[in-house]
Amino acid sequence: MTQETSITANGRQIAVQLPCTIEEFLLAQQLLPRSVVVEHNGDAVVPSEFAARPLAPGDRLEIVKIVAGG
Hints:
Number of helices: 1
Largest sheet: 5 strands, mixed
């Protein structure tokens, strides 16, 4: 059973269908999981945990894109 709710990502309210993991959320936002750094409710999350870390109503994500360059 899915539930529509919203989470806050980088200060913006975004609708999501739960259950949803961080990895699923990133892909839905057209972000490659290996190209971002994520903080979930104030805790840094390593990329290997994205697929196992579920989101809940009202969660907060801070997502920073990794940019290579010199």
